[in-house]
């Protein structure tokens, strides 16, 4: 199930350097509002509804977890940053930048400040033609028509001319060149949330750990000595089976895969939880399995300090996790960092996300993508 909304915006400019205004607007929206997935071509369009210089127009589709009302507020802020002054006069005016929300998923929204889908979209070629470029499987929820069907019946006969292609911000971050990325982190670091977001934005296949199904986990947190060995063995067996099954379905040379764990985490946790003799036995079994496992092209470790981890664990409210101690989390962090130092043939990226919240703050998510892009550029 998708966790993000699909939002379509229409952008126009007919004052100053129109191309620069639109490019700056796209970049600001990508950094501050939501992940810009696709951008249409740039069109030149005669002013609609008033006498003025011609407009440059485009459309884009973005992902965001925010509500439509929140996105509207963010869009108005972007317009203001770019120098738009909204005047309280009637009718149409020239403007340095104009951003309209056209669609929000398949929803119909009617409020004092917002009507979705945009009530005039079907009468405007400068909205419909760029939107058609986005190639979305979207139907107007009121008219039950696709974009091409709306274009066929629109009363607007104004000529919209293609000027040039526009760059999509995501095309600048070609994560899929890695093929297989594993995101790791301590308990509560937010790796699964991040993996789901990356998968939605980059159309990737996911491999997600099935920890919630492990019957030994709640027992382990109550009595660690008794349940450590069966817990670690069941995790190892499950991870091996899942990775073998899931990765076998995918083409590691063609598909883009993101995982919220790498099987080596089994050894890190086992070293902390098992008695010495149990660990030796476990290590022998692990070494046999590890040789067979494909290694990720990029291993991203999301480092978070212990204070933040404890806050996150408390917030997500899993009953069996509430007694996890800071000492236990410190040991896991040390285990990961020692493992990373010992790896010579693994492509590792450590990102400190202690002061970041990539769930609530979009700019923090973009920060993570930028860090991965830097790694990609340094390959």
From TrEMBL:
<comment type="pathway">
    <text>Cofactor biosynthesis; tetrahydrofolate biosynthesis; 2-amino-4-hydroxy-6-hydroxymethyl-7,8-dihydropteridine diphosphate from 7,8-dihydroneopterin triphosphate: step 4/4.</text>
</comment>
<feature type="domain" description="7,8-dihydro-6-hydroxymethylpterin-pyrophosphokinase">
    <location>
        <begin position="8"/>
        <end position="134"/>
    </location>
</feature>
<keyword id="KW-0547">Nucleotide-binding</keyword>
<dbReference type="InterPro" id="IPR027417">
    <property type="entry name" value="P-loop_NTPase"/>
</dbReference>
<keyword id="KW-0067">ATP-binding</keyword>
<comment type="similarity">
    <text>Belongs to the HPPK family.</text>
</comment>
<keyword id="KW-0808">Transferase</keyword>
<dbReference type="Pfam" id="PF01288">
    <property type="entry name" value="HPPK"/>
</dbReference>
<keyword id="KW-0418">Kinase</keyword>
<dbReference type="GO" id="GO:0003848">
    <property type="term" value="F:2-amino-4-hydroxy-6-hydroxymethyldihydropteridine diphosphokinase activity"/>
</dbReference>
<dbReference type="InterPro" id="IPR035907">
    <property type="entry name" value="Hppk_sf"/>
</dbReference>
<dbReference type="InterPro" id="IPR031314">
    <property type="entry name" value="DNK_dom"/>
</dbReference>
<keyword id="KW-0289">Folate biosynthesis</keyword>
<dbReference type="Pfam" id="PF01712">
    <property type="entry name" value="dNK"/>
</dbReference>
<feature type="domain" description="Deoxynucleoside kinase">
    <location>
        <begin position="181"/>
        <end position="374"/>
    </location>
</feature>
<dbReference type="InterPro" id="IPR000550">
    <property type="entry name" value="Hppk"/>
</dbReference>
<protein>
    <recommendedName>
        <fullName>2-amino-4-hydroxy-6-hydroxymethyldihydropteridine pyrophosphokinase</fullName>
        <ecNumber>2.7.6.3</ecNumber>
    </recommendedName>
</protein>
<dbReference type="GO" id="GO:0005524">
    <property type="term" value="F:ATP binding"/>
</dbReference>
<dbReference type="GO" id="GO:0046654">
    <property type="term" value="P:tetrahydrofolate biosynthetic process"/>
</dbReference>
<comment type="function">
    <text>Catalyzes the transfer of pyrophosphate from adenosine triphosphate (ATP) to 6-hydroxymethyl-7,8-dihydropterin, an enzymatic step in folate biosynthesis pathway.</text>
</comment>
<dbReference type="GO" id="GO:0016301">
    <property type="term" value="F:kinase activity"/>
</dbReference>
<dbReference type="GO" id="GO:0046656">
    <property type="term" value="P:folic acid biosynthetic process"/>
</dbReference>
């Amino acid at each position: 199930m998708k966790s993000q909304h699909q939002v379509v915006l229409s952008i126009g400019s007919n004052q100053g350097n129109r191309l620069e205004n639109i490019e700056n607007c796209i970049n600001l929206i990508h950094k501050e509002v939501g992940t810009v997935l696709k951008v249409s071509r740039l069109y030149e369009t005669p002013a609609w509804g008033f006498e003025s210089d011609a407009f440059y127009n485009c459309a884009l589709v973005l992902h965001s977890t925010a509500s439509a009302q929140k996105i509207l507020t963010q869009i108005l802020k972007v317009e203001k940053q770019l120098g738009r002054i909204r005047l309280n006069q009637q009718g149409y005016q020239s403007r340095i930048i104009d951003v309209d929300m056209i669609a929000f998923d398949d929803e119909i929204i009617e409020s004092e400040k917002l009507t979705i889908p945009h009530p005039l979209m079907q009468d405007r070629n400068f909205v419909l033609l760029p939107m058609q470029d986005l190639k979305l499987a979207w139907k107007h929820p009121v008219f039950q028509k696709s974009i091409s069907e709306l274009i066929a019946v629109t009363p607007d006969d104004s000529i919209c001319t293609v000027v040039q292609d526009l760059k999509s911000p995501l095309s600048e971050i070609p994560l899929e060149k890695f093929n297989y990325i594993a995101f790791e982190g301590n308990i509560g670091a937010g790796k699964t949330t991040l993996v789901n977001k990356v998968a939605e934005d980059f159309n990737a296949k996911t491999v997600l750990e099935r920890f919630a199904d492990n019957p030994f986990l709640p027992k382990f947190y109550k009595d660690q000595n008794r349940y450590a060995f069966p817990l670690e063995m069941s995790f190892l067996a499950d991870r091996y089976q899942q990775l073998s099954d899931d990765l076998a379905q995918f083409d590691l040379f063609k598909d883009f895969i993101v995982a919220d764990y790498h099987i080596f985490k089994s050894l890190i946790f086992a070293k902390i939880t098992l008695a010495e003799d149990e660990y030796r036995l476990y290590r022998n079994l692990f070494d046999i399995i590890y040789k067979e496992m494909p290694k990720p092209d990029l291993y991203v470790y999301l480092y978070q300090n212990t204070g933040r981890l404890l806050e996150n664990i408390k917030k997500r409210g899993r009953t069996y996790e509430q007694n996890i101690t800071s000492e236990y989390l410190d040991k896991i962090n040390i285990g990961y960092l020692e493992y990373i130092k010992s790896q010579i043939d693994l492509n590792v990226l450590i990102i400190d996300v202690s002061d970041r919240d990539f769930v609530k703050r979009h700019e923090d998510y973009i920060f993570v993508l930028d860090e991965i892009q830097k790694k990609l550029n340094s390959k």
